[in-house]
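I hope you will forgive my troubling you with a question about protein structure. I should value your view on which stretches of the chain appear to form regular backbone elements. Here, with my thanks, is the record as I have it:
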Amino acid sequence: MVGHIHLSLILVAALIAAASPGPATLAIAGTSMRGGRRVGLALAAGILSGSLIWSISAAAGLSAVMLANVWLLEVVRYCGAAYLLFLAFKSARSALTPGGAELPGLSVASLKGAFGRGLALHLTNPKAILFFGSLYAFGIPLDATLSDLALVVVAIALQSTVIFFGYAILFSSAAVVRGYLKLRRWFEGVFAFAFGYAGYKILSAKL
C-alpha cells in the first residue's frame, strides 16, 4: 500500500488482465513465431502503447466520458470484434488446411507496420477501456493526487512491458517455433477458438 492507494492490488489486477490469454497475448505469440523476435517486439510495443494511452486516458477521466457516450464505445466495440473475428477466420482456415506448416500471426512488412497493427489492436479493444475505467474508478480514491495517478500509470506500464515483451521473446525462440511446426493445426485451432470467443464476448457484452 502506497499512501492510501493499494498499489499491490492494482498491479495484481493489471497482471491478470495483461498476462491471461487474450487478443493481445495471442497476437504477440503468433506474430513472434511468424516474423521473429524483432517483429514480435515491435507488435508488443504497439500493444503496450495502446495500453498506456488507455491508462492515461482513464486517469484523466476520458473513460468516464466514453462510458457516458455509449455510442463511442459501441463504435470501438464493433471495430474490435470485427477484427478479432477476422483473425479467428484466418486461424480456423489454417487449422483446417492440411499440408505444409505456415507460421501464425499478423503478416507485416516492416517494424513500423507491426507497431501500428499492435496499436490498432489494443485501441479497438473495448475491454481495455472498461478495464482501465473500472481500475481507476474503483481502485483510486477520489482525493488521489496527480503524483498518485502518475505512480499507478508508470507501475502498470512497467509491469505490462515485462509481460508483453516477455511473450515476444519467449515465442520467438527456436524451440517454441519447432514445437508449433509439429502441432501447427492444433495451435491454429486454439488460436481460432480464442480469437472467436473474444470477439463473441465483445459483441455480446452489455455495456
